[in-house]
Target: DUF5722 domain-containing protein
Amino acid sequence: MRSTNLPHHTAIARVVIAIMFVIAVLAQSTVNWHHASGAESPLALRPVGSLQLVASNHLTVTVTDDVITLVTTGSDPYLIMQMIPRVDGAEDQILACDYFCPTGISAIEFRIGPPFPHTSAALPAFSPAEGWTTWSANIGRLAPTAWDGSKTKQWRVDFGSEPEVQIQLRNVHVRALTPQEIESRDRYDALKKAKQDDAANLLDYVQRMMPARISRVIRVGDNIQVQGQVDEQELRNDTVAVVVRSPEQLASRAISKVELATAKRITPDDNGNFAIDVPVDGWPGSESACARFQLVRLSGDTADRAVSHCRYIEATALNSSNDLPEPPPLRSAKGLTCITSRFNADQLRDLGIRHCSVNVLLGGLVDDQPRPGYQRVELPSGKWYANVRRLSGLDHDVRMANEAGAVVAAILLIRNRSKGDESTLAHHEADPAGTYAMPDLTTDESIRRYRATLELLADRYARADNTYGRIDHWIVHNEVDYGWQWTNMGQQPMPLFMDHYISSLRLVDHCMRRVNPHARAFISLTHRWNVPDNQPWKTYAPREMLHHLIDRCRVEGDFPWGIAYHPYPESLWKSDTWNDRQVSDTLDTPLITIRNLPVLETFMQSDLARTSDGKVRPVLLSEQGFHAPMDDPEALQRQSAALLYTWQQMRKCPSILAFDYHRPSDHPNEGGLMLGLRGLPTPTNPLGEPKPAWSVYRDIATPRESDLMRQYKPFWSNANMDR
Model:
């Protein structure tokens, strides 16, 4: 999902620039630097102390006495400077200041170069402050090569993508750690070590051969039935029980006293098989949709050790009163993102749209107390109050898309608390740098609210009478491999991040298929398939994440998830994806873009990626677009060619259900990207003027496509296809 900046080089960043810049200008009385042209501008200024400014972009900086006022003037503000000397040889180097910023700035990007890489170090946010407040960041820890003069001479600091943001700074300096900061650092190091241990134990848990297994957990009336087998002969003579794992506990951790209190003993037969039926009311925690069940060997009043992997309750076993027909079959269908009330069904039909997506912000959709604009609803998880005022807008968009004959996908998003979401859905460790957050599935209350939100959506958009429209595809959060921006849960090793994400993915699957057996949950991933430059504990390689998901399904029970992939070109600024260079035709490719899209199909067709019954999982290309400014005729032609090239590549990939083009119209807050099939909306033309790509997109998969292929194929057939 694109926000107001480049997708994967993105929103972490805004303010360090300010700070670094400030250091540069202290000791001057009044200086004003301005640049808002959108192109990097050199700065011919005398050195200030030990710092020399090199270049700036979209910045105004005013220094008066000891107060520095920074104002962003465009969507890509950054500053390039010579590196600042460190205080001493210690690893920890603290950049500190006082600041005044009523709106706050959510994140900061810090890069070292030249050349300046796409990846960046993230520094703490400036929280909203209506009075002078202190700020500090351990640059030495967050960007340990910042003073490596043998490799770099300059720093670049980006701060955000929003224009007209103002922050005042004073007393900017670099210093050593205070005693309190040393104590805080030591606590952080201990927490980091604990996370590393948990991640290693999770990986060991997934790969470990267990002496027993749970094969099924199903709901039968008012009972939970657990079936399985004890394979190890000696273990059959021991006392073995099924326990319900608490939501905050990792499967690899020891059984807690609370979990041990849920133990239900099993009695294997001569072949080691067992089955127990326990009333839900008499088994605390078993009624939760996130419930996981695990076999343990008991020794007196304690759990000696876990002897099986965990198993989740099966969504397919839940009864549904709906008899919904299957959605229309899809194969390389045309789709659109960002469907809103600006469209009508006739326009979508004319374009040939058969799939589309809508964003659904989950926070505030339900409450446990009555509020204005809310309506009482009965859900499987209890009595709640639904925000019908907000839901009515979603109803309109979904019904309109259905009327046009389109299958609808909902992208489930949770706004970060730092972005104004006052609900309790966002993960408690989410960093303010993230635009959206991971749901918090660590307490019964947060799970209950998240589950109720999903149940509300499931019941509303899977009705037999289609009152509110129908949603069949559920994209669970956004670009989770770039979780630091789009699904933030703080800094986490990949196994811990995925442990939480898989719980969310399973819960969505559980709630949706409870009422719609055709519903599918999708994991959302970027084109950065195997990139080697991921930010530790912030971004991850999609291929590695998928392998982990597959391994967890193998040992904990499979479910029919799919992949929502975003194969943008290598450079978002260039539509000629046939010229992408960081691609190959093997699974070791750094990127998967449209150019090497069949590599994704190779993965999907593999035995590894198929479902447990051998079926190929579905793929949605749920977000991708091609940059083409309205005033650039060559770019407009390349955009049209890219669409036709895309369909040539997609038709080689039978697992792909649909291609959702992002976006229908250009957007003024996408960091200068003009991805739309139409130009910027205006008061008199809310869809914007059509680009040539609009009619090309309309004619794809029609008899007119062959003429367009003859016109545009030379764009890629004459390109140098050697990598």
In short: DSSP finds 15 helices and 31 strands in the chain. The CA atoms of residues 245 and 317 lie 21 Å apart.
